Amino acid sequence: MANDTSIALQVNGIGDLKAALAAIPIKLRKKILLGALRKAARVVSKEAKTLAPVLQSPIKYRTKGLVKRKISVRTSKFARKAGDVGVFINVRPAPKGSRGAKNPADPFYWRFLEFGTKKMTARPFLSPAADKLPDALKVFESEVGPQIQRLNTP
Known about the structure:
The chain is mostly helical. It has one domain (14-152). It is built from 7 helices and 2 strands, in the order H-H-H-E-H-E-H-H-H. The protein has helices spanning 14-22, 26-51, 66-70, 77-81, 110-115, 126-129, 133-152, and strands at residues 71-75, 87-91. Strands 1-2 form a two-stranded antiparallel sheet. Helix 2 (26-51) packs antiparallel against helix 7. It starts with 13 loop residues before the first helix and ends with a helix.
């Protein structure tokens, strides 16, 4: 069913970045990082949207293009609770009261598309979008670098 794939990304200069961030007040640090992380994550999100499969013929309980529209960049609650800043990209679920297979606005089936089932082959769109992580890192660096420089100059 689901194959385990791991993605490795090596980043150089993290020590310098941590030292520069430590000199910035916590509130500004979180604001700067969250904005830069969101912009970087949009690169991967945009790629996932281009790769997302779209329903070709109408089906009773499915909306054409729903999975593609529901791909979003969201703030991580777990990182916030740990005192960090983080974002993730996923398919936003329907509101809690309206979830279910018969709701045409619930994209719960994105998992079946991404990982496949025993009767349906996988059509991954989020995993291949992770190939854009190096580009996202460049966007992050270009966003956060000038802001840190601006804050560190007297």
